[in-house]
Amino acid sequence: KKVIFSGMQATGIITLGNYIGALKNWVSLHEQYNCLFSVVDMHSITVRHNPAELRKRSRDLLTLYIAAGLDPEKNIIYYQSHVPAHAELAWILNCYTYMGELNRMTQYKEKSQKHEDNINAGLFTYPILMAADILLYQTDVVPVGNDQKQHLELARDIATRFNNIYGDVFKIPEPYFGKVGARVMSLQDPTKKMSKSDENTNAFISLLDEPDVIMKKVKRAVTDSDREIRYSEDKAGVKNLIDIYSAMTGMGIESAVANFEGKGYGDLKKEVGEAIVEGLRPLQTRFKELSADKEYINQVIKNNGEKASYLANKTLRKVKKKIGYPE
Ligand code: ATP
Ligand code: MG
């Protein structure tokens, strides 16, 4: 079986964007592949955070993975910080990555504008840690949203460079982008991607939002002054809602558009809101049940963390030997 690695940060409760762009795809892949799904808590500290919140959100995220349908018996669902090999390999790869390469990363540019008071080195080297995450497990495929495309390219470049020097150490990973709605946009500014760390909570729908909150946020979504429901780039707000509708109902874009023919923005928002509420209902119910079962979650954290460590250390040992660390 081929290996899949993917992860999410616990910088907030994950959003509908994370669900449609990533988690939902993971669920469709987790039977065919050997999958590792990480809560990448080491990435989360690249922006200033609250420790108690990070702890709680990390656990909620891991629980959400399972609630969404990922199976911790068949996949490895774990905390990145429980596997020190991530940090060790990241350091090594630091020395095989050029400043110029990191300078070109658009996420760094965006995030450093947003967090002007805290442009730390971790924010800059974030893509190297991500490369380490992926390369440690000899990953074949990385399912990510479009926003991570550039980082994945860099991981491939780093791996190729390393292999050219030391022989075949790393598998070169391939990206996997979901079909529909690979990029869900902000409800408040549909030219920006939906992001769980957005300070405006109306901009995103969190997977744990109550139905009335979901309806309200969709109702407030920014569209345009026009009235026509059309699927087109120049109508970013409407297009985004149709994309979400299509992803949540499984309906193709054309039939989704046909469904809204002759209807107004009010109807559109109501139906999209309902599709989200219904689509998330089973996940939300399961999340509550799982959260109550502390023992079970603790045991997943421990077992799965050990499995991940075992695999990661196999690659790390090989790397250390290749670069000449004394035995
Ligand atoms: P942050 O603002 O903290 O970076 P984020 O919402 O971008 O949060 P990440 O943890 O960085 O979330 O990304 C987790 C996964 O979700 C990645 O695979 C990423 O590609 C995907 N993803 C993030 N935002 C979106 C989006 N708006 N649409 C589709 N996929 C997304
Ligand atoms: Mg992100």
Can I get a quick summary?
The chain is mostly helical and 327 residues long. Helix content is 55%, strand content 7%. The chain contains 13 helices and 5 strands.
Overview of the structural elements:
Belongs to the class-I aminoacyl-tRNA synthetase family. L-tryptophan binds at residue 133. One of its GO terms (cellular component) is cytosol. One of its GO terms (molecular function) is ATP binding. The protein is mainly alpha-helical and 327 residues long. The chain has two domains: 3-177 and 294-323, Rossmann fold (3-Layer(aba) Sandwich); 201-288, Tyrosyl-Transfer RNA Synthetase (Orthogonal Bundle), CATH 1.10.240.10. It contains 13 helices and five strands. It has helices at residues 16-29, 41-44, 51-67, 85-94, 99-103, 106-114, 121-135, 149-166, 211-219, 236-249, 253-259, 265-292, 294-323, and strands at residues 3-8, 34-39, 76-79, 141-143, 174-176. The chain has a three-stranded parallel sheet with strand order 1-2-3. The model has no long low-confidence stretch (mean pLDDT 95). The structure holds adenosine-5'-triphosphate and magnesium ion. Adenosine-5'-triphosphate binds next to helix 1.
Task: Label the structural class.
Answer: mainly alpha
Helix content: 55-70%
* Distinct compounds present: adenosine-5'-triphosphate, magnesium ion
Q: Can you give the mean pLDDT?
A: 95
For the report, how would you describe the main beta sheet? 3 strands, parallel
Number of domains: 2
For the record, the CATH architecture of the largest domain stands as 3-Layer(aba) Sandwich
Q: What would you report as the Rg, rounded to the nearest angstrom?
A: 20 Å
Low-confidence parts lasting 5 or more residues at pLDDT below 50? none
SSE order, one letter for each helix or strand: EHEHHEHHHHEHEHHHHH
Content of β-strand: 5-15%
For the record, what is the CATH homologous superfamily label of the largest domain? HUPs
**Principal-axis shape:** globular
Q: Predict the CATH topology of the largest domain.
A: Rossmann fold
Total number of helices: 13
Looking across the biggest beta sheet, what order are the strands in? 1-2-3
The CATH C-level name of the largest domain is: Alpha Beta
Distance between the termini: 32 Å
Instruction: Work out the number of β strands.
Output: 5
